[in-house]
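Lab meeting, item 3. Inverse folding demo.
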């Protein structure tokens, strides 16, 4: 199969292969013979690993009804060793874009325009800043009838250019999908987005797949965790915004009463300076036997299943996948009052919400749960029920496809 030039550049360097546009639909039928389907083009700034936006996009692509839709993905950065990309039956194209205002950007804009027109794209759905601010206007000028944006944070990654740009491009979008009510409020109050086009669409969890993965074995003894030790876990990449230092300080309070407690931190090291500071903090507080950095795991769910409590000490969130996945594992959760956390955790019912940076309050709630296992179990059951009722992958996909249909009908497209 001959790959497009813009993809081949990357692949020759990486010596791997990725699915690429080949003139075929998702079901492998030649373009001229395939049943007519609605073509959706997803544009995302990067596909480097399983962050929240990347995970949401790949789940959507996996679950779109193949009898109704065909889909493609365009990205500006890709990790060719990203295993999840090999599990999707979807065309992928890399448009290498370092700046949005140089000659290369002009060439990439023309390629994107040609793709949208030649492939009869009916919906363009964007993720992250460059896709929103650069690609969406190109899609509009290319004649794409429906343009949708997913907004997943509270502007933490924006600079002054983004803050100026969003109010200008927001009228381009037919719908803006905020990942939580807090993110929706941010879109309205900071971006000046028209309220009638901004809708909350929560992330969804596949509970059947989650349960199957959680049942897989994981040897906690390999981490040196004593048998029967109460486990408190978090799943977060190591970087300042995740607030792991607050959790470590909370652990110091907890371990005075429960010296056998073990805090497991699952996640990749994204900022080495932060990791060094965390290790030094753990040592200075005398917690080397109580705090374990597990690192990145493809399947963290057995650890969640073995845990008593899940903590999310983030300083900023849009809507945390890790939080609702922990809830899906029937864990009572202690989370900070940022982003959509308080929309997921029902205070006093499925867990506790504490203020960001308040290590003592976090420790207090953890201690309440460790002291009262029966209440902790009931909270975990309530957390699982909340996911079943409000945050299932089926509910997310049903609403998303209804939105697509509504917008296409409104445009008579």
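The presenter then showed the designed sequence:
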């Amino acid at each position: 199969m001959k790959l497009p030039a813009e993809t081949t550049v990357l692949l020759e360097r990486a010596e791997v292969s990725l699915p690429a546009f080949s003139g075929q639909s998702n079901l492998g039928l030649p373009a001229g013979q395939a049943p007519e389907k609605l073509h959706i083009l997803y544009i995302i700034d990067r596909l480097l690993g399983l962050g929240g936006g990347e995970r949401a996009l790949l789940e959507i692509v996996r679950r779109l009804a193949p009898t109704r839709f065909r889909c493609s993905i365009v990205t500006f950065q890709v990790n060719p060793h990203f295993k999840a990309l090999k599990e999707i039956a979807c065309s992928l194209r890399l448009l290498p874009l370092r700046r949005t205002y140089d000659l290369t950007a002009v060439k990439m804009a023309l390629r994107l325009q040609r793709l949208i027109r030649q492939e009869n794209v009916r919906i363009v759905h964007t993720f992250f800043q460059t896709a929103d601010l650069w690609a969406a206007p190109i899609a509009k000028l290319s004649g794409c009838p429906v343009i949708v944006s997913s907004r997943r944070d509270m502007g933490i990654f924006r600079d002054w250019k983004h803050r100026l740009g969003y109010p200008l491009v927001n009228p381009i979008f037919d719908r803006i999908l905020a990942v939580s009510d807090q993110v929706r409020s941010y879109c309205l109050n900071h971006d000046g987005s028209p309220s009638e086009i901004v809708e909350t669409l929560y992330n969804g969890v596949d509970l059947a797949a989650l349960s199957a993965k959680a049942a897989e074995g994981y040897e906690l003894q390999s981490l040196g965790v004593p048998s029967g030790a109460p486990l408190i876990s978090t799943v977060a990449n190591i970087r300042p915004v995740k607030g792991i230092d607050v959790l470590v300080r909370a652990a110091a309070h907890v371990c005075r009463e429960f010296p056998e407690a073990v805090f497991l931190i699952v996640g990749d090291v994204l900022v080495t300076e932060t990791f060094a500071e965390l290790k030094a903090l753990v040592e200075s507080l005398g917690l080397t036997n109580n705090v374990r950095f597990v690192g990145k795991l493809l399947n963290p769910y057995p650890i969640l299943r073995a845990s008593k409590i899940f903590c999310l000490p983030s300083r900023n969130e849009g809507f945390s996948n890790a939080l609702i996945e922990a809830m899906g594992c029937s864990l009572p959760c202690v989370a900070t009052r940022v982003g959509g956390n308080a929309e997921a955790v029902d205070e006093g019912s499925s867990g506790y919400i504490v203020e960001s940076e308040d290590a003592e309050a976090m420790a207090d709630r953890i201690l309440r749960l460790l002291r009262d296992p029966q209440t902790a179990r009931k909270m975990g059951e309530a957390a699982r029920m909340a996911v079943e009722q409000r945050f299932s992958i089926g509910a997310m996909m049903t609403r998303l496809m209804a939105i697509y249909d509504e917008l296409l009908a409104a445009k008579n497209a």
